[in-house]
Specification:
- This protein is mainly beta.
- The protein folds into 2 domains: 39 residues; 334 residues, Neuraminidase.
- Helix content is 10%, strand content 41%.
């Protein structure tokens, strides 16, 4: 009996250590779960009179949802994140109930930013997905000459580089990096038959023709870095949002608050010095409201990431919810539509509803590798 007691007592420190370890592990797991729950909590979106909003896709499903494009009436979009052995980003579809379906997984191509299906009359590229992309994964890929690639639906979306953007402009040695919005010109307009892409790093908008040839289109560096691309309803002018910088070039590195603008560009690349609107902090995607969106048809809606885009935030803390959606009145005034966003990127009218994609923490630039992106749907009352 005495020997048994001695043996038990000799094992006590080990038992206590094991129990303590299990206890600490449990506490760590609980704390991690609490952090995750805090970071992935749905945002609180506040709308102004005349609008109502709901979370269409909650955090936890998307990394960095960027720009929406339509395919056969369905909404598809790029989701930047999820790097796997030199590949990263994917294409997903989202239905009216917010269900996310993967079309192109993370394992297929380098990070994609924006694009869509090449329309009829685009030569051998017709029917292919054309994507404005980084040349490689990771943060350094954002500062290299970006590429335009095609993904072939008939070959499991196998990617092929169509062209590499040439140097252009005087900022940052003319390197076309920090790609943002990209889209096709409206058919049957002076912009038809061309694909356009904006690069913040050198303050340029590029174009690609139906033969797959890329060239500089417009230099907006004197106004700031171009971020969002859209077109007037009559298709006679391109609309570009610009982010102002005290240093020029990649504006997000030295954001000039209140210096963002919305500008008009002619089909030959000439920029109108008179802005459509000004006073944004970090404007991104934009689109003109169609008929059926309440009394706001013809007004430009713009996503603004807000003043906190440059403020470092520890990984375990939520990012400031200072992003906003504005509409631009006919006399160029900014009217708030909704607030409570984190880093809203894309604007897209899907039917009679406005979809806003929000990347929240930037997967590549901010190294916040969390599926904290979300999508908000806004309706006009």
């Amino acid at each position: 009996m005495e020997s048994t007691i001695r043996k038990f007592l000799s094992l006590m420190p080990i038992c206590i250590a094991v129990l303590a370890g299990l206890c600490m592990q449990g506490l760590a797991e609980t704390e991690a779960q609490q952090v995750e729950a805090r970071l992935l909590a749905p945002p609180v979106i506040k709308t102004e009179p005349g609008f109502m909003a709901k979370i269409l896709v909650s955090p936890g499903q998307l990394y960095d949802p960027l720009f929406v494009f339509m395919h056969n009436g369905a909404a598809w979009l790029t989701d930047d994140g999820g790097e796997v052995d030199g590949t990263g980003s994917r294409i997903v579809s989202v239905n009216a109930k917010g269900k996310v379906t993967v079309i192109v997984p993370y394992t297929v191509t380098v990070p994609m930013i924006a694009g869509g299906f090449a329309p009829p009359g685009f030569g051998k590229l017709t029917g292919q997905i054309i994507m404005f992309s980084q040349p490689k994964t990771d943060f350094d890929g954002a500062f290299m000459n970006h590429v335009i690639q095609r993904l072939d639906p008939a070959k499991n979306y196998a990617p092929t580089i169509v062209c590499t953007l040439p140097k252009g402009g005087k900022l940052n040695n003319g390197v076309p990096g920090a790609g943002v919005d990209a889209r096709f010109g409206p058919p049957n307009t002076p912009f038809g038959g061309r694909f356009f892409a904006a690069t913040l790093l050198n303050g340029m908008v590029y174009q690609m023709n139906s033969a797959g040839e890329c060239s500089a289109f417009a230099d907006l560096s004197k106004y700031g870095g171009p971020a969002g691309i859209g077109f007037t309803n009559d298709g006679q002018r391109m609309l570009v949002s610009t982010q102002a910088s005290s240093k020029g070039g990649l504006s997000v590195s030295s954001l000039k608050l209140g210096g963002g603008m919305l500008l008009r560009v002619s089909p030959d690349g000439k920029v109108d010095d008179q802005p459509v609107a000004k006073g944004f902090d970090a404007p991104m995607g934009l689109e003109v409201a169609p008929k059926g969106f309440g009394s706001y048809a013809g007004q430009v809606f713009v996503a603004d990431m807000g003043p906190a885009i440059n403020i470092p935030v520890p990984m375990t803390q939520r990012l400031p919810a200072d992003g906003k959606i504005y509409r631009v009145t006919s006399d160029g005034q900014l009217q708030l539509v909704a607030s409570g966003f984190v880093n809203p990127a894309g604007i897209k009218f899907v039917g009679s509803k406005l979809w806003v994609t929000d990347i929240a923490g930037d997967f590549i630039g901010g190294k916040r590798e969390l599926p904290d992106g979300f999508i908000v749907q806004i309706e006009a009352k």
